[in-house]
Write a structure and sequence with these properties.
- The chain is mostly helical.
- It folds into 3 domains: 1-90, Glucose permease domain IIB (Gyrase A, domain 2, 2-Layer Sandwich); 142-302, no CATH class; 319-496, no CATH class.
- The chain has 19 helices and 8 strands.
- The chain has helices at residues 2-16, 45-50, 71-89, 111-130, 134-146, 150-169, 176-188, 190-201, 206-217, 237-258, 261-324, 331-341, 346-350, 352-367, 372-386, 391-401, 403-424, 451-476, 480-486; strands at 23-28, 32-37, 56-59, 63-66, 225-226, 229-230, 429-431, 445-447.
- The chain has a 4-stranded antiparallel β-sheet with strand order 1-2-4-3.
- Helix 16 (391-401) crosses helix 17 (403-424).
- The longest helix is centred in the middle third of the chain and has 64 residues, at 261-324.
- It starts with a helix and ends in a 22-residue tail after the last helix.
Length: 508
């Protein structure tokens, strides 16, 4: 039944993005279906947003449809299958079949919500134009290397946490080693996957990138005397794998230009692995290892000595990073910390930004009692917000309103300061995997003071973020003019609900 539902969602989305012939590639991350388009003008934005399964749309290097965690992983294969079927069955007669935008504005959303959505889209476009710098585009490509690894990080992280819990409780001792092997196997070879994805993303042969990165985790590196210093397996971690694979891509491209075609199949892969491998062994592993150690040391000392202030800054600034789509560039840092200590201390602090966003949205909901349109949007987006998916609330509510986005950042800063303070007091904890946030992060928490303390501090941080985000938005999120413009009474569709309990019918 769920397969039918996912296929129906994919079938509803496909014509609204211009049909199979308008799509050049399909991918997905934790929450978004990412579609590369031939002609952006064929996309029917408002009709897409009106679909029940769609939480919002985001424009970046690809057109991104927010479906939420879990859902996107099920809808994407169905969507890809429909694209392939459409290309196979449509000869050449109806490539422009979707020029029927006659019903984009099906009255699923009221005028005020549509105005906010249009304002949010305009803001995204302006920011996208200003932020399309080579450096930020490079960061996004680096993020694309790690995003496909997130499901394995989550699954293995939860299994490793379960194994640790059973070991601490002394339960099922025969099962604990098996869970440890299952949870740790992927992390022991993550460098290979990073190398493979890096070469794939930057235009090289994926398996050559994986082969060069595999050198980093090969146990035999201990026998190599590199300038009088010993190497250790895993030295440099994912940063070393990333650098090694990037180098391999450049060497391969050079070989493709200069090696004769008759020798290419033998010479190019050999030189790529040999040159990149030697540089990795006698340079990159030391350099990346030093950088990785510095990151771990800096994060630990930062939270140990200035945890409250650091949490304030990190929690307050994370929402703008999410808005720009640059938050995924932090994945290599999280992964490095997980490699070193078993968890990333940064993720629970950064997750507080989502708590501030939820608190701000709740305040907007309460401050606009007569605006059924915005309240319906908030009600539909709040469940995802509690689970850490913030895009629908950011782009549909707080960012277009302006001031509530700032007060949401204040809530995130307060929650981050709360969690950072306890880190400073010695309750050090983090997430054993990356990807989820909000309530979905609870199963992934671990720390030096035990699971109970980690859960309690994280829950306290969420509560602080909710409360401060709500209070800041209630008192400072609206000017008098904003309230006069926005809280103007029920929409025509909600007119019968002038009194009584059922004020705002949620659109289907």
């Amino acid at each position: 039944m769920s397969t039918d539902k996912n296929r129906a969602t994919a079938a509803a989305i496909l014509p609204l993005v211009g049909g199979p012939d308008n799509i050049t590639s399909v991918a997905h991350c934790m929450t978004r279906l990412r579609v590369a388009l031939r002609d952006r003008s064929l996309v029917q934005d408002e009709a897409l947003k009106a679909l029940p399964a769609v939480m919002g749309v985001v424009e970046g290097d690809t057109y991104q449809i927010v479906l939420g965690p879990g859902t996107v992983a099920r809808v994407t294969p169905e969507f890809e299958a429909l694209v392939e079927e459409g290309r196979a069955t449509a000869p050449a007669a109806a490539p422009q079949a979707p020029p029927a935008p006659a019903a984009p504005a099906g009255p699923a959303k009221a005028v005020t919500a549509d105005a906010l959505a249009e304002r949010g889209a305009a803001l995204k476009e302006a920011r996208k134009a200003r932020n399309a710098t080579p450096f930020k585009l490079f960061l996004r490509r680096v993020a694309n290397v790690f995003v496909p690894l997130i499901p394995a990080l989550i699954g293995c992280g939860i299994i490793a946490g379960l194994g640790g819990l059973l070991a601490n409780l002394g339960w099922l001792p025969a099962l604990v080693p098996a869970l440890a092997a299952i949870g740790s196997g992927f992390m022991s070879l993550i460098a290979v996957f990073v190398g493979y994805n890096t070469a794939k993303e930057f235009g090289g042969t994926p398996v050559l990138g994986g082969a060069v990165a595999a050198i980093i985790v090969f146990p035999g590196v201990t026998k190599i005397d590199a300038f009088g210093r010993d190497l250790s397996p895993g030295q440099g971690g994912v940063l070393g794998a990333l650098a090694a694979a990037l180098l391999a891509v450049q060497v391969e491209k050079w070989c493709r230009r200069w090696v004769p075609e008759t020798l290419d199949v033998l010479v190019t892969p050999t030189l790529t692995v040999l040159v990149s491998g030697l540089v990795t062994l006698f340079g990159l592993m030391f350099l990346a290892g030093a950088v990785s150690t510095a990151i771990g040391t800096f994060a630990t000392r930062l939270l140990a000595t200035g945890g409250a202030f650091a949490g304030l800054v990190l929690g307050g600034l994370f929402l703008p990073l999410v808005m720009l789509g640059l938050h995924q560039a932090l994945i290599p840092l999280h992964t490095t910390l997980i490699e070193q200590t078993g968890y990333t201390v940064l993720l629970p602090i950064l997750a507080m930004a989502g708590a501030g966003q939820v608190g701000a949205a709740l305040a907007v909901y309460c401050r606009l009692p007569r605006n059924g349109s915005i309240r319906a949007t908030i009600k539909s987006a709040l469940p995802a917000g509690f689970l850490g998916v913030g895009e629908p609330l950011i782009y549909g509510v707080s960012l277009p309103l302006g001031r509530p986005f700032v007060t949401a950042c204040v809530g995130g800063a307060a929650g981050g300061a709360f969690v950072g303070l306890f880190n400073q007091l010695g309750v050090t904890f983090g997430s054993t995997a990356i990807g989820p946030s909000g309530w979905a992060l609870f199963p992934l928490l671990d720390g030096t003071s035990g699971m109970g303390a980690a859960l309690a501090v994280y829950a306290g941080g969420l509560a602080t973020g909710y409360a401060v985000g709500f209070a800041a938005t209630w008192f400072f999120g609206f000017t008098r003019q904003m309230l006069a413009d926005l809280d103007t009474g029920p929409d025509p569709a909600a007119a019968p609900a002038a009194a009584g309990p059922a004020k705002e019918p949620v659109p289907a």
